[in-house]
Amino acid sequence: MDLWYNSEMLKLFRYLKRYAWQVVLLLFLIGVQAWAAMQLPALMADIINQGIIAVDIGYVWRTGGWMVGLALLTSACAFASNYLSARIGSAFARDVRGDFFRQVLSFSVTELDDFSTASLITRTTNDIATVQQAVILSLSMAIRAPMMCIMAVIQAIATAPDMTWIMVLAVGVILGLFTLIISIVMPKFTLLRKLADKITLLARENLTGLRVIRAFNNEKLEQKKFGRTNDENMKWSLWVDTIVSLETPLISLVMNGVMLLCVWIGISLISKDFAYLGNMMAFMQYAIHVVISFLMLTMLFVMLPRASVSAKRVNEVLETHAKIKWRKETVGKASIRPRVEFRNVGFAYHGAEEKVLDGVSFVAEAGQTTAFIGSTGSGKSTLINLVPRFYDATEGEILVNDIPLKDYAQKDLMKRIGYVPQRGRLFSGTVRSNILFGVEAETSLSRPSAPGRAAKSLRSSKDSSQSRAKEDLDEIMKKAARVAQANEFIEKMEGKYEARIAQGGTNVSGGQRQRLSIARAIAKNPDIYIFDDAFSALDMKTDAKLREALQPITKEAVTLIVAQRIGTIRDAEQIIVLDQGKMVGKGKHEELLRNCDVYQEIAKSQLSDAEFAEEMKKAEKMQKGGKNV
């Protein structure tokens, strides 16, 4: 067993510290079990030598009674130790999985990009389960086997020293076989883990993209891709299992050889002294205990390399430090009126040569809508993702409420932001739980309605009841749904606000998912609303009604909108045009139509010739009338 995978397992064994007293109890139980088991061959030798040969039936019954008692004690200790090792192993896996999940939640988008989603799922499930099995085996076999082996060797030497060499020979053969098997299969364990990741990736990719696969009639192609990986996994799994399975028949061969040698040598010694019969029988049992102990250890040693690969993968995640560092407490005093400011901000992805954003500067004030538009790949979504620190700007500085982002505690920044992603993401639960996802709901003596700009307590008196609190949350939820234009379809659903939402919101349409995502942000009542192309799945009528309903809600907040359609942002107080990561225009709709070539191109691509001409006339009329922005 080399130090590499031993050290990987030892890193995770620190989780056993909190179960130290249970481990001590386990050691005691295994010690009692091993001691009791080692007494049985000696008692059997006494029965043969002093009971049967001496024809003392009373001694046989008395000693036999002791053997029955010791056998029961051995069984009871074995049961208790197996239960305790399983309990410790399960608790160990729970703790590791909990820390693993918390670590993943703390990752920035950069770390999530480094570990694929499929790999993280496999590590959370298969890898931790493999380590759990290794821990259970270690707690039982790794303690019991050496203890029984040492006791059996001592007893065997004391019982029949002339036959000790048989045990030494058996142990040498077993160790040689084990070393050969491990050296052959060890490199394949890493390969099997990578193939498991790939299978998870393909399964997830195909399940989430099933509609596209069917629309393009590509089921057979995807089956072939999955089949190739699946077949390769089967081939190497079968190969590893075949090599490992040789262990049992080889150990059985060694055990039978030991028995044969014991009988052969024992008979020659019995011919000189018939009383040696009991010693020979006891030695055979001790030899079997030694071989079984090494069989248990070889099973553990075969398991450990597989587990060490999994432990390394788990440790890679646990030891990964998030590149984005948050302060424990926010430094500075935030302005009362919400404000977002970019100061010469630049951004490049790790390892990329070109910048995604370069020299972006603007100020977004409360009560105003700041919109971002540009061609695909212009950096709109990247820019918007810098505000909640999904990424850190590589150049310049971003301030929220006059405090630099890097001076914020994570909880303080996030409670100020209502984020609606490009693809509406819902969670399994109900319509209610999804809309109120960001609301801090405490039905005790005092409960704030929502974190963020308002943060006003709906009820602070000690007499406020849970029913009153629920009514307040219902009011927040229904108001958010009305503003997001989601109340109409919610009322038609079975169960209405208690209607079930499937994982990922697969049982509602794309437009409904977007509206529920918008309602979730509205219910939070934040300082800053971020809409990352959040209106793309809405029809023009619903889009217009939603933006009209948003105006009174966002009059005291900063609103940042990424959009593809000019119709969505034409009324924005400030429109920022991006092209290849640089700001090429900033102003209102009419001003940009006159002065920004990129904005004109976008407008031409979305409007008919007549509509574009009409828009240009309006822009020129405003300029002549002295109404330039």
Which terms would index this structure?
629 residues, 6-stranded mixed beta sheet, 63% helix, 11% strand, disordered N terminus
Question: Mind sketching the topology for me?
Answer:
Blueprint: H1 3-12, H2 20-52, H3 57-106, H4 109-114, H5 117-159, H6 164-208, H7 210-215, H8 219-245, H9 247-270, H10 276-318, E1 339-347, E2 357-365, E3 369-374, H11 380-386, E4 395-400, E5 403-404, H12 410-414, E6 417-420, E7 429-430, H13 431-435, E8 447-448, E9 457-459, H14 466-483, H15 487-492, E10 500-501, H16 510-524, E11 528-532, H17 540-553, E12 558-562, H18 566-569, E13 574-579, E14 582-587, H19 589-595, H20 597-606, H21 609-624
Parallel strand pairs: 3-12, 3-13, 6-11, 11-12
Antiparallel strand pairs: 1-2, 1-4, 4-5, 7-10, 8-9, 13-14
Helix pairs in contact: 1-10, 2-3, 2-5, 2-10, 3-5, 5-6, 5-10, 6-8, 6-9, 6-10, 9-10, 14-16, 19-20, 19-21
